[in-house]
Each structure stands twice: as C-alpha cells, then as structure tokens.
Amino acid sequence: MRTLPDVAIAHSVCSPMRTLHAAKDGDLCLLVPLRDALSLHVDGVDHELAAGMGAIGGHGTKSTIDAASGMQLLSIRLRRQLLLPLVQSTSDLQSVAIVHDTQAMGLLRGYIRALDAEEAITTPEARHLLALHIHDLVALACGATRDARDLIEGRGKRAARFAAVKADIVANATHRNLSIDSLAARHGISPRYIGALFAGAGMTFTNFVLEQRLAHAHRLFADRRFVHRTICSIAYDSGFGDLSYFNHAFRRRYGATPSDVRAATLRAG
C-alpha cells in the first residue's frame, strides 16, 4: 500500500472471495484487475471486468464483488472534488462507471509501476504533484473535458509518458541496440518528443542510458559473485561496445576504475 495526499494505492493478490459493500458518500475508488477477470454486481447490473479494465464509483458503493483465486487487483482511492471537475460525465460516477483498457489506462498502470519502483517520495511538493498526475490519468480514462485535456496533456499525461519511457530504458539499458528511435516506436511517440521529455527534466536521453549502463556494471563489479568475470565481458553485457569508452566513462562517473571497485569489494570480505 502507498498513501499520498488525496490518493491511496493498494496492490492485492486475492484468495477466492465475495465482498459486499454498503453504500455511503465520500471518495471515489477505481478497481483494476491486473490478471484474470473481476465480477461486479451494482444496482442490479452485472459487469465483467477483463484484466486491464477498470470500474470507478463512490467508495463503498453498494455492490458485490467476486474475485477468483490469485487475481491481482489494483485499487486507487481518489478525491471526488479533484476528479469530478476534470470529467465530462459526472453522473456515471454517482454509481459505477466501467473504464475500458484504453491508452490512458495503460499510462496509468505504467505510472503506478514507476511509482512503485521509488522507495520513498519525501518532499510534500513531489507527493502532491504525483497525486495530481494520478487524478489526471484517471480523468483521461473516464473521459476528460476539452479544457481538462489541455491541462492534463501538459501535466499528468506528459509525466506518465516520461515515467513509462524511463522504466523502459531501465529494463532494456543493457541491450546495445537500444535507441531513441526504437524506444519511440514502442511507445507510439516521436524521437523528438522523447528528447523534449528529457530536456524538460534537465537531462538527455543519451546520458540517462549511459547512467543506467554504468550503474549496472558497477553493481556487478561490487558483487563478489562476479569476481570471475572479466572487465570486458561485464562492460559488454552492460550495453557497451567500446571498452576504452567504458573505462573512461566509468572512472569519470565513480572516481575509480572497475578494478578499483572490485578490489575494494574483495578487501571488504
């Protein structure tokens, strides 16, 4: 679980269960099955949510939820007063609205995954901004107003795309064929837009990739389990094709050579 101002996020793995919720006023809740289907009965209507779809309604809306064994469920509690001004049809949220697996839902799930990778969000400003971004992405998935879309495009949607791009790089940094063109194609955006995302954060695509590759190599040199590996093989497996360039970049980043890091690890026992 993680709580932020105006947002609470929970990941669950369910045993077979049926839960009954009594109606009450308050916040909104978005349920997203991440694996397998979720059965939802609200106001005499049955809904079947496939993985990736969502159901949003008042927290505690009178409903029955059936979950299969091992189903992975993402639950996001949201502030009604923050979300309603952003969406076109607020009447749907008085009971429950079904949100299909749209691009916005994909961005939301990716943003949550990137947030999960952060050990701590310490500053109040950052926590508040993250909560705004999550409300923005939910509004997009539910159907944002035209004015809200213009706002969200430069706020939540942009942040979610940047988080998804960075997560992709972290996952694939050791692949030597990783390029801004291949990354852009995977995310359905232009290389120029990716460059602008990094520029807005005060960095470049090239430097971010380099940082991930150097960090990967450093972890291997600092791990006694890999002392039998040559410097060249670790550099190659970390995404580098030029040993001289790798050694220079590594020393500039860490103030020590790969051999120095390995020797310090061995001395530490």
CATH class of the largest domain: Mainly Beta
Mean of residue pLDDT values: 87
Radius of gyration: 23 Å
CATH fold category name of the largest domain: Jelly Rolls
How many β-strand runs?
10
CATH homologous superfamily annotation of the largest domain = Regulatory protein AraC
Provide structural commentary.
By secondary structure, the chain is an alpha+beta fold. The chain has two domains: 2-172, Jelly Rolls, CATH 2.60.120.280; 210-267. It is 47% helix and 20% strand. The chain contains eleven helices and ten strands. It has helices spanning 80-83, 103-117, 124-142, 146-153, 156-172, 180-187, 191-200, 205-221, 231-237, 243-254, 258-267; strands at 2-4, 7-13, 17-21, 28-35, 38-42, 45-49, 54-58, 63-67, 72-78, 96-99. A six-stranded antiparallel sheet has the order 1-2-9-4-7-10. Strands 3-8-5-6 form a four-stranded antiparallel sheet, with no helix packed on it. Strand 5 (38-42) and strand 6 (45-49) form a beta hairpin. It is elongated, with a radius of gyration of 23 Å.
